[in-house]
Automatic annotation (TrEMBL):
Organism: Microbacterium enclense
GO molecular function: electron transfer activity
Keywords tagged on the record: Electron transport, Transport
Function: The electron transfer flavoprotein serves as a specific electron acceptor for other dehydrogenases. It transfers the electrons to the main respiratory chain via ETF-ubiquinone oxidoreductase (ETF dehydrogenase).
UniProt cross-references to PANTHER family, sorted A to Z: ELECTRON TRANSFER FLAVOPROTEIN BETA-SUBUNIT (PTHR21294), ELECTRON TRANSFER FLAVOPROTEIN SUBUNIT BETA (PTHR21294:SF8)
CDD domains: ETF_beta
This protein's record includes keyword Transport: yes
Lineage: Bacteria, Bacillati, Actinomycetota, Actinomycetes, Micrococcales
Annotated protein name in UniProt: Electron transfer flavoprotein subunit beta
Assigned GO CC terms: cytosol
């Protein structure tokens, strides 16, 4: 079985993150240290857990990311992935969701796959639609937002949890799935794993070798019209109850324009 895991480099969630107000992209200079997105570590873990139980399983990690993302991608190799594909091309800088999905799908096709595992939502872009779009471009079934995952030789099955209940869903392979934080955390890397990662296959490809023309005017692209920094947050108003809290609250709501 061949599993491709989609991994994205993101700024560390615990550090300061900034948008470049000129481009609308992450200000990589000012942003916190780049890391492998935690949800994608879980996606790698899901693939490796299957590989542990099924010798012969190949796990390829795939990222479309700037050239500087090499160390982040190697972390997935150090966790135990078999090989890595890094799509890197300056013409893809600022790629919108459709172009990203097209690029990832082309790289997946080129690599070959039975199953694609992704995170359900990146911690920076946060669109939450790349896995579904990749499945659509590949023309295969998608099971998104899975809180449990089982893989057999021919099928993938999982649980989709919503406020209304839990759906048990399954699809024939090949398929694309995305997983949630309900799945186990990624395993720690070991010194042995880090050393082994240095010798694992690491392929770098550009858009042209995937037959993708980033500037093709025939393809719909979204255009960013403007970008603005989030306004600073102001402290709220604290109402102390001295027997008149209800009146003060009503006066506050009226002043804020809340009417019947
Ligand atoms: C040179 C260059 C610069 C880039 N700069 C930025 C940037 O500044 N900000 C930014 O957000 N993106 C950047 N990207 C990546 C790309 O534009 C986004 O990944 C894309 O828009 C996906 O949006 P999302 O994270 O909201 O997707 P979501 O749908 O929220 O992602 C869900 C899941 O899809 C998979 N996935 C998403 N994106 C990728 C990817 N690129 N590679 C592999 N798997 C992926 C992951 O498994 C992820 O958990 C850059 C890419 C390149 C080549």
């Amino acid at each position: 079985m061949k599993i491709v895991v989609l991994i994205k480099e993101v700024p560390d969630t615990w550090g300061e993150r900034r948008l470049d107000l000129e481009t609308g992209l992450i200000d990589r200079g000012a942003a916190a240290a780049p890391v492998l997105d935690e949800i994608d570590e879980r996606a790698v873990e899901a693939a490796l857990a299957h590989a542990d139980a099924h010798p012969g399983t190949e796990v390829t990690v795939l990222a479309m990311a700037p050239a500087s993302a090499t160390a982040t991608i190697r972390k997935a190799l150090a966790m135990g992935a078999t090989s890595a594909v890094h799509v890197v091309d300056d013409a893809l800088r600022g790629a919108d969701l459709l172009l990203t999905a097209e690029v990832l799908a082309a790289a997946i096709r080129r690599t070959g796959y039975d199953l694609v595992i992704a995170g359900n939502l990146s911690t920076d872009g946060g669109a939450g639609v790349i896995p579904a779009m990749v499945a659509e471009v590949l023309g295969v079934p998608q099971l998104t937002g899975l809180a449990a995952l089982e893989v057999s030789d021919t099928m993938v099955t999982g649980d989709r949890v919503s406020d209304a209940g839990t759906m048990r869903v399954s699809a024939e392979l090949p398929a694309v799935v995305s997983i949630t934080e309900a799945l186990p955390e990624g395993r720690f890397t070991t010194f042995k794993g880090i050393m082994a990662a240095k010798k694992k296959p690491y392929e770098t490809v550009d858009a042209a070798s995937l037959d993708i023309a980033p500037d093709d005017p025939a393809t719909a692209r979204y255009i960013m019209l403007s970008v603005a920094e989030r306004p600073p947050r102001h402290a709220g108003i604290k109402i102390v109850d001295e027997g008149d809290a209800g009146e003060k609250l009503a006066a506050f709501l009226i002043a804020e324009g809340v009417t019947r």
